[in-house]
Amino acid sequence: xxxxADYTEKIPNNVDLHEDRRLQRALESWQPNFLSWWDSMGxxxxxxxxxxxxxxxxxxxxxxxxxxxxxxxxxxxxxLADRKPDRRIAFGRHKGEPVWQQVPGEYRADLQRxxxxxxDTEPASVEQQRHLGATAPSLYDLRNxxxxxxxxxxxxxxxxxxLHAYFGREGREEAELLLHRNSGSEESPRILGAFNEETPxxxxxxxxxxxxxxxxxxxxxxxxxxxxxxxxxxxxxxLKEESxxxxxxxxxxxxxxxxxxxxMLEHDTDDVVAHGGIPLDIIQKYLNFHFSVSLDxxxxxxxxxxxxxxTAGLKGRWAEERRRDDHVLTDDSIMVDAIVDGKPGQxxxxxxxxxxxxxxxxxxxxxxxGVNRWNRILEEAGIDRRLRLPHVxxxxxxxxxAGIEATPDGEVLSADEWERRKGEWLPTEVDxxxxxxxxxxxYERGKVAAWLAPPRQGINGKPTDxxxxxxx
Length: 472
Ligand SMILES: [Fe+2]
Ligand SMILES: [Fe+2]
Known about the structure:
By secondary structure, the chain is mainly α. The protein is built from eleven helices and seven strands. It has one domain (17-471): Ribonucleotide Reductase, subunit A. The radius of gyration is 23 Å and the shape is globular. The chain binds fe (ii) ion (FE2) (2 copies). One fe (ii) ion (FE2) binds next to α3 and α6. This is Benzoyl-CoA 2,3-epoxidase subunit BoxB. InterPro entries: Aromatic_CoA_ox/epox (IPR052703), Benzoyl_CoA_Oase_BoxB (IPR017635), Ferritin-like_SF (IPR009078), RNR-like (IPR012348).
C-alpha cells in the first residue's frame, strides 16, 4: 500500500495532500511561520550546506537520502508509515475492534492534548541546541547536531499535520501555539520541564540525546500503539529517525569516556582537568542530572488520566503486542515508587493507574545499556571506577520523590544537608566552567577537539574526515 512520496509539491508527503485542497492550503500557510521560527530559533551558526539525510519516503530504500542541503531548504515533509491492512486495536476497552481512521468525538480532547504535548517537545530541543554550532568539536559532530535539528523540525511537522488534518480550528490554533511557546521563555515556556533547561555545551548535548531523546522514543512507542491509526503510523516513522539521535548520544559519551581514560592512563591521575579532559566525576554528575530530569518526563507514578487513555485505546504500553497478559489490565496490580516510612520504597496499586511507572521502568532498563557500554570502556582500560545510574529518588521534581532529597544511593537527606552536599552529585559552577572552557570550535576538516576521541566511523559510509559541513 505504499504511496509514492510527492516531491513536486511544496510540502513533500505520502498522504495525498493534493487531494485535500483545504488542508494543503492550511499547511502551506503554516509553512512560512515554521520557516521564520527556524530562522530565529533554529541553528544560529551560518552554513552554506550540510551533508544531511532527508526522508523522501517510508519504504526500506526511500526513507534516507543523503546529500548536501542548505538547511533552510531541507524538505520537511509529512510521512506516515504504510497502513497495515486490517489493523486492530491491541488493548483496552476496544481491543479487537478495527483501528480508527478518524478521531472519535468522545476522545477528541484527549487525543489533541497528547499530540500537542508530543509536538511541543520537538521544536523545544531545536531551541535548546541553537547555539551549539558555535562550539562544535568537529565537522562530523556539527553535521550530527544539524541532522538531529532538522529531524526534530520534521517531527514538529508530523504533529502539526495531525492537528490540521483531524482537529479542525482548534487543531490549527494549537499548531500556531507550538511555534509561539519557546524553551526557557518566561511568558510562554515549553510544556515540560526538561525542555526548558539549557543545553549549554556538548557534554550536555550528548547526555540530552542519550537520556532525553530516549524518553521521546518511549513516548512515541506508546503512541505508536494508538487506536487512532494516523497517529500510530506517524509515530512509527518518527521512531526510525529517533534512533539516530540516540546513536549521537551513545557514541558521543563513548568518545568522551574514551578520551578521559586515555588521559588518565597517560598521566596516571583521575584528575584530567589540567590535561584538557573531562574527569569521570564530572561525567557522572552530568549523567545524574540528565537522567533525573528525564525521569520526571514520565509524570507521577500513578495517573488516572493515563489509565483512561489506555482503556480508551489512545496510548498503549511499550511493546504492547509482545506483552503476555490480557491487554486490558482491569484485574492486575503493579508495585510503584512511593515514600514508605519516610524513605523511598514501593507500594502496590492497580496496574492501570501505574502505567507511567511501567513505562519509566522500561526506559530505565534501556538507559542501563549505555552505562554498561561505557563501563566496558573503563574495564578494558583496567580502570576500577564505574559510572552508574543514580537512584530513582535522586533529584526528582515530579512524582512521589519530589518532596524529598536523596543521594544517588537513595538515602534521604535533610534540606540543609542536600544544599550543602548536592555539588558532590550535580554539576557545580566550577564543573560547568571547566566543561565550557573546553568548548572551542574545531571546524577544520578531519580534526577533532582534544576532550573527546575521534568518531570510529563516518556517516553513510563516508570517511570520518569528510567535509560534512560547508560553513558560510
Ligand atoms: Fe523527535
Ligand atoms: Fe529526537
